[in-house]
């Protein structure tokens, strides 16, 4: 065991505050990572405030973690001390079910162990996340990070990045396709960058007209304002694929209308009820499809990191010291960030 | 023009009653069919009573039509007088859009012309359906019917049959797959027969335990009672495909839980709001898919008719005289039919 320092929520209603806890010592397959940067994901806020219920406190959020390997177990083969490394939403899974065997640990039949707000595998001990000075993780759940990239802007790739990369790859987005990215936030801005890098004609679909110019800077070929009914009608039935990054329940019917026959919209942000309700007839006429996707497996996460290094893709970030995490949450609630807060963990007073 | 006799709804609240109207004379590509049998689809009731709004009155329902060709236009090539013929939900479409060119007239970009509750193409004249003594239809929208089959039991194939056959084919249901058919009514009982004939392991999923034995008679290998939470949990994540035939809005979440990773549930019955609302998280964990499907194109409808002749598949029907159509609607509302009412048009007093 070693003493770790971070910030935690103690219940759904109090601000995050300094918190000291014990981390296990690295086992033979583990690496210990000194955390340099930790992204703030919208889901950190949802979980810290128990919006999805079942929150486990104390909670140290953070699952977009970039750091430097400080210690490796005897059987570790992928990492050596000094390497840059990333940890995302998962730190463990059963490793023997059909999904784990297919490198899709996020769909583990027994449930993956999440980086925080989860119990460690076969244990009552809580998993604590990235708003802290170090973390110990089995190497299967750690990815290599190219030192070529701007590391602070790499952190959000571990969640916002893989969450958008995985469905774009799975549904084979590429040249000749018209692809819409719905919602311009942490996920959406990565979706635009990836879809563009994959060769698609990218349309940013946003309710906020003044984000239009920024969407084009990020790589969008067109901007479609979802509140403009005439514009929505003009694009009806024209999209090969839609990546829906809206982080809350919403009316999906107007977006379904944008799909071509047999085309798919994939939800990556909205975990809760899709209200007003989906109308069956909107799927039937045109055999339109709705699906969802959750992050990506560890092999695909590494593939995405390599793709980013090759294409020079990182997140657009705004740095905050850990002491301002609560203010950052308030701004996040107002969608006031372009496009991801990242905590500089150097700001943490280490023990 | 020739005088036709049938039964019509004059508004949303009155019973269907005898109605005389004019049918156009056959053009060069048309066939005139003397109607022998007309199935009663659940949607006849929805439309006659304006449940979906926008009903056009007077309305002669009926889109599961079997009859004998009585007259053919000069350019008709597929039919001769005396042939048995079927007409389903459509009688026309634009014939030049990408969907029509792909033999998917039901998704016509300009909107198909429906057999009733629709206006004739480029006209203000109403289309009148199969609860009548004859109908005139362009041959592209008429299918050949094998005289080997029991004709009165063939009528429901034109809607209930193609509606279930088409998605089972499109999603390539076959041997080695576990396929669930949700809802045992007019559509569901055809879904069971088709999925079985295609070689799948078929599970009938019903809220009505006493339909279980009948489902097995129809070909189901297993019965799953949707109200039995333990049984539903035991089948979680195990289905390769679900055909959802429930004809009204309902909670789809418990059925989504039955799907394997990357598997699809297709809605063919519920046109309205799916309430309580779908939860995004239920699609995300396992990349589960929901889609819909509407009837089938004319080429596929002919393929289905041929498949039925080859496999000896017809609908289970209960015959009613046209004078009892209103009583049949009341029984349909109570789900009291196994599994399709068919009107014997010989009961109609012809002019």
Quaternary state, please? Answer: homodimer
Greatest contact between two chains: A-B, 40 and 40 residues
Strand proportion of chain A, as a percent range, falls in 25-35%
Strand count, sense and barrel status of the largest sheet of chain A are: 7 strands, mixed
The secondary-structure class of chain A comes to alpha/beta
Number of DSSP strand runs of chain A: 17
The appropriate CATH architecture of the largest domain in chain A is Alpha-Beta Complex
Q: What would CATH call the homologous superfamily of the largest domain in chain A?
A: Medium-chain alcohol dehydrogenases, catalytic domain
Rounded mean pLDDT score of chain A:
96
CATH class division of the largest domain in chain A? Alpha Beta
Uncertain regions spanning at least 5 consecutive residues of chain A: none
Helical content of chain A (DSSP H or I, runs of 4+)? 10-25%
The structural domain count of chain A equals 2
Shape of chain A: globular
What is the string of SSEs of chain A from the N terminus onward?
EEEHEEEHEEEHHEHEHEHEHEHEHEHE
How would you summarize what this structure contains?
Chain A has about 350 residues and is α/β, with parallel strands linked by helices. Chain A has helices at about 40-50, 100, 150-155, 160-170, 185-195, 210-220, 230-235, 255, 280-285, 300-310, 325-335; strands spanning about 1-10, 15-25, 30-40, 65-70, 85, 90, 115, 135-140, 145, 180, 200-205, 220-225, 240-245, 260-265, 290, 315-320, 340-345. In chain A, helix 4 crosses helix 5.
């Amino acid at each position: 065991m070693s003493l770790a320092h971070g910030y935690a929520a103690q219940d759904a209603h109090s601000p995050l505050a300094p918190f000291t806890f014990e981390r296990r010592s690295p086992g033979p397959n583990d690496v210990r990572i000194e955390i340099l940067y930790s992204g703030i994901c919208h889901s950190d806020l949802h979980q810290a405030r128990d919006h999805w219920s079942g929150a486990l406190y104390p909670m140290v959020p953070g699952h977009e973690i970039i750091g430097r390997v400080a210690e490796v177990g005897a059987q570790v083969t992928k990492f050596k001390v000094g390497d840059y490394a990333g940890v995302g939403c998962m730190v463990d899974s059963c490793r023997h079910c059909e999904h784990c065997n297919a490198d899709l640990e996020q769909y583990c039949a027994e449930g993956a162990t999440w980086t925080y707000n989860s119990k460690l595998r076969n244990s009552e001990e809580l998993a604590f996340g990235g708003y802290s000075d170090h973390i110990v993780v089995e190497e299967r759940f750690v990815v290599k990070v190219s030192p070529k990239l701007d590391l602070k802007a790499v952190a959000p790739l571990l969640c916002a990045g893989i969450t958008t990369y995985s469905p774009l790859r799975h549904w084979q987005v590429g040249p000749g396709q018209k692809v819409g990215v719905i919602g311009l936030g942490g996920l959406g801005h990565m979706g635009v960058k990836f879809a563009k890098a994959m060769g698609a004609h990218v349309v940013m679909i946003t309710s906020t007209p003044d984000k239009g110019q920024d969407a084009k800077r990020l790589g969008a070929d067109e901007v479609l304002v979802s509140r403009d009914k005439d514009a929505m009608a003009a694009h009806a039935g024209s999209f090969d694929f839609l990546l829906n990054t809206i982080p809350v329940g919403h009316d999906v019917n107007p977006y379904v209308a944008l799909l071509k026959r047999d085309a798919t919209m994939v939800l990556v942000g909205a975990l809760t009820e899709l209200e007003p309700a989906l109308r069956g007839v909107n799927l039937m006429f045109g055999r339109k499809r709705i699906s969802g996707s959750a992050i990506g497996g560890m092999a695909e996460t590494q593939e995405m990191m390599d793709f980013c290094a090759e294409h020079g893709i990182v997140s657009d970030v705004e740095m905050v010291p850990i002491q301002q995490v609560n203010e950052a949450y308030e701004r996040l609630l107002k969608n006031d960030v372009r496009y991801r807060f990242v905590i500089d963990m150097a700001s943490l007073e280490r023990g």
